[in-house]
Amino acid sequence: MDESKLKTKSKPKNLILIGMMGSGKSSIGIQLAETLKADFIDTDQLIETKYDLIVNLIEQKGEEFFRNIESQILQDLNQEKFSQNRIIATGGGTVLRAENHKILKQLGLIIWLKAEPATILNRLIKQKNENRPLLKSFSEAEKLNKIKNILQMRESLYAELADLVIDTDKIKNQNDITENIIKYFINGSLQK
Ligand code: S3P
Fold first, then answer.
1. Helix %, strand %, coil % for the chain, to 5?
2. CB within 8 A of 59, min separation 6: which ones?
3. In whole angstroms, what is the distance from residue 20 CA to residue 137 CA?
4. Which residues pair with 17 in a beta bridge?
5. Residues having CB within 6 Å of any atom of ligand 1
6. 164 Cβ contact list (under 8 Å, min separation 6)
7. Prediction pTM value
8. Residues 6 or more apart from 189 whose CB is under 8 A from it?
9. Is the alpha carbon torsion for 170, 105, 187, 192 positive or negative?
10. How far is the C-alpha of 16 from the C-alpha of 9, rounded, in Å?
11. Does domain 13-187 bear CATH number 3.40.190.10?
12. 100: closest CA among 83, 77, 75?
């Protein structure tokens, strides 16, 4: 937790959730939004509503094409007139593009939901979510390796961007995670 970073941000506009797939961004985001009476936005859902299923985009047009759309969605969110009071759950790979970092920081306060590879794998097995083609058709052992590799590439990016890090292997309960986040950002600017 880096307090000095927070002080450089005068008015938090939105809370942004970053982290690997299966780290709980959507479920925590929904709970945060309900508690804070804020709007909830899931960038994966926005992409699927505006364009096509993520699995189609990646498998038919390629990951680069999907990443372009992901960046575009982020830019759109940052330009919307009433771009405040929102909880925004991002796709796990949003941090890959340097151009997205500036936008994420402008959008608001960034929370990294950190999780170990084994935890991520267990959650993904339970979820059976179809919008993660990057892990499709791998065995569990291969999936674990792939998660480890992806995490290794992204960990420093998540860490660098985060105003607040929640270790979801230590704080496991969803209510506790939400409570911790709210306590940390309790300066009222997100509450209507
Ligand atoms: C991805 C994560 C997914 C989705 C896409 C790519 C990634 O989002 O954007 O499948 O590269 O980690 P979630 O993190 O919401 O699962």
1. 55, 10, 30
2. 133
3. 19
4. 89, 111
5. 21, 25, 44, 54, 91-93, 131-132, 134
6. 1, 109, 110, 111, 112, 181, 184, 185
7. 0.91
8. 11, 12, 13
9. negative
10. 14
11. no
12. 75
Residue ranges of the chain whose pLDDT lies below 70: 1-12, 81-82, 186-192
Q: Angle formed by the axes of helices 63-79 and 43-50, to 10°?
A: 110
Residue 135 CA, ligand 1 centroid: distance in Å: 10
User: Residue ranges of the domains in the chain?
Assistant: 13-187
Q: Which residue has the tokens 């970092």?
A: 101
User: What does the pLDDT look like over 119-146, one tens digit per residue?
Assistant: 999 999 888 777 788 888 788 999 999 9
Question: Which residues partner with 40 through β-bridges?
Answer: 87
For residue 134, the tally of other CB atoms under 10 A from its CB is 18
Per the CB < 8 A criterion, the answer to whether 133 and 59 are in contact is yes
Inter-residue contact 86 to 39 (CB < 8 Å) = yes
The Cα 126–Cα 22 span in angstroms is 10
- Measured in Å, residue 22 CA sits from the centre of ligand 1 at 9
Q: Are 134 and 150 in contact (CB under 8 A)?
A: yes
